[in-house]
Amino acid sequence: MAEDCPVKSDEPTDDEIKAYDEWVKADEMARCYILASMANVLQHQHQSMSTAYDMLESLKEMFGEQNRATNQTAMKALLTTKMVEGTSVREYVLKMMSLLNELEILGVVIDKESQVEMVLQTLPDSFQQFCLNYNMNKMDSSLAKLLNELQAAKSIIKQQAPPAALMVDKLSSSTSKPEGEKKKKKKPCKVSGANGGVAKPKEKCYHSSNLVIIRNSVPAT
For 120-166, how does the pLDDT look when each residue is reduced to its tens digit (9 = 90+)? Predict the structure, then answer.
């Protein structure tokens, strides 16, 4: 925030003169830094302004709406970001830190406790036990320390995951049967003679055979 220029009285004291001279020197340096960071067109528009405060107010009026849109975009990205199960927790926390840093540059101040809570609330279910322990123990960590703790927790979760996955695979493989082991259909049997070689189911073969025998035993007339 720009400080107001010290006001000198009609008969200024040595302290007032010293304070005024220091302010003028600091303001002139600020003007130089602002002008040096501008494009040539903006330099031409602002170089005639007497104070750094006037320059900042002019820039705010020119680009204030763009800054607000950028602020909203960064905030939306922060609030909608959520870690996907199985992805790198390190990359995720670094992304969240980058978004928080961008908001801070834009003038949005979020306290350290809220920053940590934002990260914890957007972790996947595999970190549920970690979040529970963190809240129960009332731990107080910076984002950098939280990153190290989450990486350690991730390695433990990764070591515990394969046995459980293996059991599921074994269970699923034992309950499913290959297609080759499906119950085979009974093949029909063929009966010769009176039926003219028409296929009949096995359970009727004996009955058909009896009919053949009976018919064969009747003397011809």
Answer: 999 999 999 999 988 888 787 888 899 999 999 888 887 775 544 44
Q: Are 120 and 134 in contact (CB under 8 A)?
A: yes
- CA–CA dist 100, 123 (Å, integer): 16
DSSP the chain: -PPPPPPP-SS--HHHHHHHHHHHHHHHHHHHHHHHTS-HHHHHHHTT-SSHHHHHHHHHHHHHHHHHHHHHHHHHHHHH--PPTTS-HHHHHHHHHHHHHHHHHTT----HHHHHHHHHHTS-GGGHHHHHHHHHTT----HHHHHHHHHHHHHHHHHHHHHHHHHHHHHHHHH---GGGSPPPPPPEE--STTTT-EE-GGGHHHHHHHHHHHHHSPP-
Whether the CB-CB separation of 20 and 12 falls below 8 Å is answered with yes
pTM: 0.46
Contact between 34 and 46 (Cβ < 8 Å): yes
Query: How many CA atoms are closer than 13 Å to the CA of 14, on its beta-carbon side?
Result: 0
Residues recorded for the chain: 221
